[in-house]
């Protein structure tokens, strides 16, 4: 299994390291900055003797090395700076992503592609348009991370093991995300039965602002430990045909009442990429919020001149 990661910054390189540790396949790490991916790959390679793990990694600044990849992760682009929204990244990252997608189409037309570059849902939509790939084979990582953040915050509040929580978040990866208390369970008990509405709303708000909170604390760059763990989980799910249901930014064609937009929804992920989109029965309030999130995404995409 050949897994290429384009963008050897914080998220890309840590994703590569996680996948190496897990022996997910042959890893190719690419960055436009000369020597950088090669240097990081050498460093990771040097750790093999210490870790007693014979993983394979190639670092390069030549994108041609992604040729015939089975899975491609795109983390190339600029990260958010303090005070910057994901949306402000749109124009800059769109140009970077468009060029990369043309290369993916040329060099690895059969790959399954996971987009990570922000603003996530718009970049995923753009990548689909540029490559013309089937939506089941190109999608984005965003709300898996948001669900993990929600689970973490709930576990601390309720004083329960985070591993007992099955968190559910849908919507856009950004201010339009919607952590769903009705579909989040602690060992089978719905969160809506364990927390009152005020408490739930406070945790939801904290989850929505978590990325920005981390950006502010870091001072430069954005989160990468949890994001890389989320990407690695999706890659492993594809590589091992695990068929787990994970939240990803998927192209909707009537699901959830929406068309021609990419938004975060639960999907069964396996060796074909998205095997199914899981449709949750949303109530009126949730459906309205989801529709607003979809419309916001569509309107923002229209502002983009490519
Ligand atoms: P950073 O550490 O800056 O790494 C980005 C890397 O991309 C840099 O090393 C650049 O040199 C490289 N790059 C730029 N253009 C190209 C190109 N054309 N080809 C190859 N490499 C290129 O950022 P990061 O790793 O922290 O974040 C990367 C992206 O992921 C950003 O857009 C973030 O906003 C996004 N991100 C998304 C999530 C989600 O949950 C969706 C989480 C964390 C980061």
Summarize the structure.
The protein is of the alpha/beta class and 306 residues long. The chain has helices at 10-21, 36-46, 48-51, 90-107, 120-131, 143-158, 191-194, 197-218, 225-239, 284-302; strands at 2-6, 26-30, 57-60, 71-74, 112-115, 138-140, 165-166, 169-171, 177-179, 185-186, 189-190, 244-253, 259-270, 273-277. The protein folds into two domains: 2-140, NAD(P)-binding Rossmann-like Domain (Rossmann fold, 3-Layer(aba) Sandwich), CATH 3.40.50.720; 143-301, Lactate dehydrogenase/glycoside hydrolase, family 4, C-terminal (L-2-Hydroxyisocaproate Dehydrogenase, Chain A, domain 2).
The count of β-strands is 14
Rounded to the nearest angstrom, the distance between the terminal CA atoms is 34 Å
**What is the chain-wise order of helices and strands?**
EHEHHEEHEHEHEEEEEHHHEEEH
CATH fold field value of the largest domain? L-2-Hydroxyisocaproate Dehydrogenase, Chain A, domain 2
Q: Using the alpha-carbon principal axes, give the shape.
A: globular
The figure for the number of domains is 2
The helix tally amounts to 10
Helix percentage: 40-55%
């Amino acid at each position: 299994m050949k897994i290429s990661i384009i963008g050897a910054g914080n998220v890309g390189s840590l994703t590569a390291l996680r996948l190496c540790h897990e022996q997910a396949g042959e890893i190719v790490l690419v960055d436009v900055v000369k020597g950088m991916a090669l240097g990081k790959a050498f460093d990771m390679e040097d750790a093999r003797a210490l870790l007693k793990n014979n993983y394979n990694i190639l670092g390069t600044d030549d994108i041609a090395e992604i040729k015939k990849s089975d899975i491609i992760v795109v983390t190339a682009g600029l990260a958010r700076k303090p005070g910057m929204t994901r949306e402000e990244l749109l124009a800059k990252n769109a140009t970077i992503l468009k060029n990369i997608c043309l290369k993916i189409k040329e060099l690895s037309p059969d790959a399954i592609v996971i987009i990570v570059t922000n603003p996530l849902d718009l970049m995923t939509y753009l990548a689909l348009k540029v490559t013309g790939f089937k939506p089941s084979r190109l999608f984005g990582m965003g709300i898996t991370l948001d669900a993990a953040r929600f689970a973490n915050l709930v576990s601390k509040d309720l004083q329960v093991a985070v591993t007992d929580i099955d968190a559910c978040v849908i919507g856009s990866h950004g201010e339009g995300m919607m952590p769903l208390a009705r579909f989040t369970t602690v060992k089978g008990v719905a969160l809506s039965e364990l927390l009152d509405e005020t408490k739930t709303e406070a945790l939801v708000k904290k989850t929505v602002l978590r990325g920005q909170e981390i950006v502010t604390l870091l001072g430069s760059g954005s989160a990468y430990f949890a994001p890389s763990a989320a990407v690695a989980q999706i890659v492993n799910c594809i590589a091992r045909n695990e068929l787990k249901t994970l939240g990803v930014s998927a192209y909707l064609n009537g699901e959830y009442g929406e068309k021609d937009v990419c938004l975060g929804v639960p999907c069964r992920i396996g060796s074909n990429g998205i095997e199914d989109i899981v449709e949750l029965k949303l109530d009126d309030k949730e459906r309205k919020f989801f529709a607003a999130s979809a419309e916001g995404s569509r309107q923002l995409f229209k502002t983009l001149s490519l």
